[in-house]
Amino acid sequence: TSIDNMAAVSEAKSHIHNQPSSARDVTLELVRGGSIGDVKHHGFTITWSQLDLAVPTDDGADFQILHGVSGIAHPGRVLAMMGPSGAGKTTLVECLAQRAQPTGGSISFNGHPWNPKMSRLLAYCHQLDLFRPNLTVREHLYINAKLRMDANTTEEQINSRVDDVINRLGLAKCQETLIGAPGLGGISGGERKRLSIAAEILNRPAVIFLDEPTSGLDSFMAASIMKLLKEISQGIGGSPVTVVAIIHQPSAEVFEELEDLSMMAAGHTAFYGKAKELVSYCKDIGKPCPSFTNPAEHFMNTISVNPEAIPESKKQIDWMVNAWKDSKNKGALEEEVKLVADASSGLTDPGNQKNPSSCTQLRVLLYREFLDRRRNKLMAIAIVMRSLVFMLFLGSMFYGLGSGSDQKAVQSVTGAIFFIMINQAFTYVIPTVQTFPRELAVFRREYSSGIYMLTPYYFSKVFANLPIDLVMGIVFSPIAFYMIDFSDDPNVFGGFVGSLALITLIATGLGYWVSCMAPNADVALLLAILFVVIPLIPSGFIINLDEVPVYYIWLREASPFTWSFRLLMSNQWENYGDIQCSSRDRSEGFCNDENVPFSDGLAVLSYYGLWLDSNVPLSLLFVL
CA angle, corner 31, sides to 30 and 37, nearest 5? Predict the structure, then answer.
């Protein structure tokens, strides 16, 4: 901080201290030295002046959400944003956190406009706590530290940082406990909220924004969260932190912990100052707070809309907003905002952090996926039982038909081949399509925070599922192969197993593709059925390949199931040899000495329009 700027701020402080007691202290001076990575910082003072935000409506008009809002947030202090629903407090915080862009006014960080490099110093805690339930508290923090901290950070430093955060936020007792989910066991609601905050302070931010951190907690836990935020604001790693929190319906215990307070009503500022000054302000404007009443609750009642008296409520809100505009407090606030914004002091360019490489991100995300699957024992059992039961059922249904070298067995064996292909398709497409929609909320939050890139996340899912899918798709295949008695030739068995492996890869790839398109799990399932059933129809069993209408030839050739069926059929029939006209065939008039529908395996392929060298579908499937 330049000496000239500090002198200007010091002179301004003396002037403001001579103002009424409601005027704010300027706290731009250095509190304590600190560092984020190798970058020294002394806190961020955020100022916003005359912020407006309007959004277009369906009728073409603009709906005004924020109306000329001004304020300041100091390092080393907690600023609470309060107001009834629809007051604009969340929108304001999102503007300050650079998650929304105002249509008017200005926002300054230490007197400077926003610099994208500052984003590494900003943290945002959402209202809804989203976690991977099968991770422990320590594992969650360790994985976040590996992804958030500088790439040059050593393993010892990462573990030290995780230990520090766990102890600072009182998570030591539950650090080895699975996070779980609400209603399904795991850590408590208060611990979940602390864990959300813990993950955000791993990288030692200079500013933390929190969306309703006390909502859903009892008064004791809510008060403890506010005490924690005050402790965090005093310094992380020796550096003061600017904390801005949206507080909804604070209890008396929570209000006692508040330092700075901004009350909003209908997109306007209705009060701004120290929380302890709210009572005197209410008295000054003729709205005194009754004895033994929570001041925050009293003020909220005056700026909230009563559904049974909407016109009167709106007049009351307008009166409260005008009372603030006419108050000496507003003048002192605007002077302070202008003063600090003009000072242009402090850190504005934190430098470039070396983020973990794509390979490191992939390795860490794979570790997370394997932890999750290792602990999801019910899912593992279900996968094993599904594959085992189906192969046993299929083997018993078509038992021994593969060795029956007669004409009628051709239909049964071909049907078994087609049904095995269908099973591989549905078995691996349906679960896979839910992969991304099921975790979409967690992904969006982590990705928007810049924790990892899209490519490592995608391939972590693919590589984590691939071994399981391949093993389950192959390990039980001998049961069906030998119960049906497809062949004694080991080459045919090897081709059968290899074909199922390729079909498994095709099915999972198709599932991931559909999963990426679907906005939620329900839509994903509907799309999966569409993208599996339609390509199955022209694959060669339901309709002869030679009979596919000319306008659907493109679908026949583009369908991965066409080439999958060709590969399985070629593997079975290409070197099958002669097919006899058995006594059963003769007795039923199916064939005679002069008329044999299928003289050998090649005739079967020709009948289904599948006459093709098996290397061709094998190559195409490998590419797919």
Answer: 90
Write down the residue that tokens 């038909």 correspond to. 401
Q: Which two tokens stand for residue 45?
A: 């003072």
Q: State residue 541 phi and psi, 5-degree precision.
A: -100, -45
pLDDT at residue 316 greater than cutoff 70:
yes
Q: Let me know: does 435 contact 520? Beta carbons within 8 Å.
A: no
Structure pTM? 0.78
Residue pair 267/52 in contact (Cβ under 8 Å)? The answer is no
Confidence of residue 363 (pLDDT cuts 50, 70, 90): very high
Best CA proximity match to 16, nearest among 335, 286, 262, 274:
335
Whole-number pLDDT of residue 8: 37
How far is residue 550's CA from residue 84's CA, in Å, rounded to a whole number? 64
* Full strand arrangement of the beta sheet holding 46-56: 62-73, 46-56, 104-109
Contact 69, 50 (CB under 8 A): yes
Mean pLDDT of the chain: 81
DSSP for residue 203: T
Residue ranges with strand state E in 152-217 = 207-211
Rounded Cα distance, 120 and 510, in Å = 37
Extract the tokens encoding 495.
Answer: 């081709």
Query: How far apart are the C-alpha atoms of 363 and 65, rounded to whole Å?
Result: 44
Q: Confidence class of residue 624 from pLDDT cuts 50, 70 and 90?
A: low
Handedness of CA 303, 309, 314, 319 (dihedral sign): negative
For residues 275 and 277, what is the distance between their CA atoms, to the nearest angstrom?
Answer: 5
Strands 46-56 and 62-73: antiparallel
Q: Which residue matches tokens 């924020």?
A: 66
The string of pLDDT tens digits covering residues 507-542 is: 888 888 888 888 888 888 888 888 888 988 988 888
Q: Which has the closest alpha carbon to 624: 525, 508, 546?
A: 508
Lookup: tokens for 598? 């299928």
Residue 304 per-residue DSSP state: S
Instruction: Tell me if 453 sits within 8 A of 364, measured CB to CB.
Output: no
Residue 20 has pLDDT above 50, yes or no: no
What's the rounded Cα separation, in Å, for the pair 520 and 454?
18
